[in-house]
Amino acid sequence: RTLLTGADARAWLLAYADRVLRDADELTDLDRRAGDGDFGWNVATALGKARTALLDLDRTAGPPDVFATVSDAHLGAGGTSGPLFGLWFGRLAKGPREPWTGRELARAFRDAVDAVSRLGGADVGQKTMVDAMVPAVEALEAEQPEPEWRAAVARAARAAAEGAESTRSMLARRGRASYVGEHARGVVDPGALAVAWFFESAANVERT
Ligand code: ADP
Ligand code: MG
Ligand code: MG
Predict the structure, then answer these.
(1) Which member of 4, 24, 111, 126 lies 3.0 to 4.6 Å from 100 by CB, making a disulfide possible if both were Cys?
(2) In Å, what is the CA distance from 194 to each residue of 65, 133, 189, 191, 208?
(3) How many domains does the chain contain in total?
(4) Global pTM value
């Protein structure tokens, strides 16, 4: 199968929620070193709520329903990351109701990162979540012809992880990490790391 179904999307987001709920301390530690130390709490709160809502979701839910559920949970959470992740998942929720082809997957993630970049005013190289989102979508767009969705997302995950790692040597130009100047150097941006975890989580989705 090449298509991302609603059930796949639900399992993917549940796996991501589990990852964040398990390793939130690592995210918080990074935000403590280059921010205000609430990032892990902000995303874990959002994904805890999302997890409960996803488990209640109708089995016939399509990818848009799954992404809208996660968007709503982020919009209700605190921090700068709440509205940004809320918008990211909210744009994904505008994708087609039917299972997504590789092309539709790439298009949805392109629209989503463009929206985040516009709202936050952040481009690649400014030590934000955008540094993981952009290489991930480029990997999705580069994949030709239509791949099995897990294979496409696995490539996106490698690109996102490299993007997150690239933030280590950056000086922040956006968000709270920009207030601490040189102190942020050597610290991976937690938002970018969470995005890498998101794409990596697809590897834990069982084939149905
Ligand atoms: P706050 O700084 O309000 O406490 P969070 O801790 O919830 O916000 O989120 C911090 C993360 O948000 C950062 O790691 C970064 O990835 C992301 N971020 C902050 N500002 C921006 C921005 N202007 N554009 C994109 N992402 C941003
Ligand atoms: Mg913070
Ligand atoms: Mg804060």
Answers:
(1) 4
(2) 22, 10, 9, 5, 26
(3) 1
(4) 0.97
Q: What is the CATH number of the domain that holds 110?
A: 1.25.40.340
Pocket, ligand 1, Cβ cutoff 6 A: 31, 35-36, 38-39, 42, 79-81, 84, 120-122, 128-130, 174-176, 189-192
Query: What percent of the residues of the chain are helix, what percent strand, and what percent coil, each to the nearest 5?
Result: 70, 0, 30
Q: What is the model's pLDDT at position 85?
A: 98
Alpha helices in 76-189 (DSSP H): 81-92, 102-120, 130-142, 149-166
Note whether residue 39 is domain-resident. Answer: yes
Ligand 2 center–CA 175 separation, angstroms: 9
Nearest atom in ligand 1 to the alpha carbon of residue 189 is 14
Q: What is the mean pLDDT of the chain?
A: 95
Residue 39 Cα to ligand 2 middle (Å):
4
The answer as to whether 1 is a domain residue is no
Q: What is the DSSP string of 107-140?
A: HHHHHHHHHHHHHHT--TTSSSTHHHHHHHHHHH
All residue ranges of the chain with pLDDT < 70 are: 1, 144-146, 208
In a domain, 89, yes or no: yes
20 is a domain residue: yes
What's the complex ipTM?
A: 0.99
Task: Give, in order, the Cα–Cα distances in Å from 127 to each of 122, 145, 152, 190.
Answer: 9, 32, 25, 9
